[in-house]
Amino acid sequence: MMKKALFLTVLACVLPALLAQVQAPDVYSASEFEKRRLALMEATGDGLIILFASPGNTGAGHFRQDNDFYYFTGCEDANAILVMVPATRDSYLFVPQKTDREKIMEGGNSLDDPGARERLRLRAIYPVSYFDEFLSRLSGRQDQVLYLRLSPEDSVGEARSETALFQARRHRNPYNAQLSLNQFRAERFRQLYPAAQLKDITPQIDALRMIKTPEEIAVLRRNGRISAEAVKKAMLASRPGAFEYELEAAAVEVLLKNGCRGPAYPPIIGSGPNSCILHYEKNNRAMQAGELVLMDFGGDLNYLTIDITRTWPVSGKFSQEQKKIYRAVLEVQKACIEAFKPGVTGREVQEYVARKMKEKGIDPLGLKGGLGHLVGMSVHDVQTADLVLREGMVMAIEPGLYYPEKNLGFRIEDTVLITREGCEVLTSDVPKEIEEIEALLARRKF
What we know:
Elements: H1 2-22, H2 30-44, E1 48-52, H3 67-73, E2 81-85, E3 90-95, H4 100-106, H5 116-120, E4 124-127, H6 131-138, E5 145-148, H7 160-170, H8 181-192, E6 197-200, H9 202-209, H10 214-237, H11 244-257, E7 262-263, E8 268-271, E9 292-297, E10 299-301, E11 304-305, E12 308-313, H12 320-339, H13 346-360, E13 373-374, E14 394-397, E15 400-403, E16 408-411, E17 414-418, E18 423-425, H14 434-441
Helix pairs in contact: 1-4, 10-11, 12-13
């Protein structure tokens, strides 16, 4: 028994280092996260900035770090805390101290990695049990300001506003009306540090996250190619009698084989009547000849997402009615993309779309176009009010028309990068012209 105990103890100490040697190299440079922290500290200039990691994995999927915490650390330790001190430009990480048993079962964390402090470019890494004492030493002034995330968090598939919405819906049942983690943490700080002033750091975070860095853009370009290939694979898997989940399986295989963590949100694959349900995700219906299938899909690669939607005929050929509606949606989307450039507002995009449709003699069937939504760490990424396009933003534009009485739903969506003079379509590898779609579907074998 003593030999076994000694072996487990040694294994617990050695295993984290061995695992670190075989893990894939960092996607982002060592300075990327440090630059982000310095930019955030420059934006506040005072007080202490405190961000919390995700408490841990609660489902069957892989662990994914809290977006804001990861954005400023690149660290995937669960249950950790980051403290930034703008006055000195120093950053400190507080991490749970794991038992030997936990290290064997889950691996170690930054406390077990001698090179973590230097790699993460932090002033120090401490056990999380030291956090309150550390904070007490720094928060003695009467004018102390603590910057916390007082607004809702976002996740890979939900915007901050959606997090708040879904929480409100849960609160319909009074037995589910508990405080969120953000709310609980704020209350605890108010109790422990009553002289401190709490301020929301979310607006400053969002202003940074909205503009993608060159390293983020490189990841998004790769994800755009991978996600486009996944949708093409699903299109080739479609046929009369096939189930919607077969298309999901074909697409997810491409993501996983190319290094994605998985889909950025529950895949939407709606055939026939399901094409008119905007966030349909059951994906359990058999598609029939003559119907359309609408697929809304994208990958999650290195904490950055992509958003694509394509609509195509199950049988391989659009009917005349389907062509007319599809062409209207497509031309509106293409006009929106043409209008995208720095300084443009949603109203200006709509004016451009109306002018282009009139020039081409195309009835937009009520569609006006617009800016769509930002894409990034969340598929519905953070943004500020009164959005105006800026270089480095990444947008998804997704016009759609839906006719439930005919079981016809149309949506066409691409993710684009706003460049200095216009925009770059990151998902252009998946066809959307009618002729291109029908040519691809003609290659199917069944």
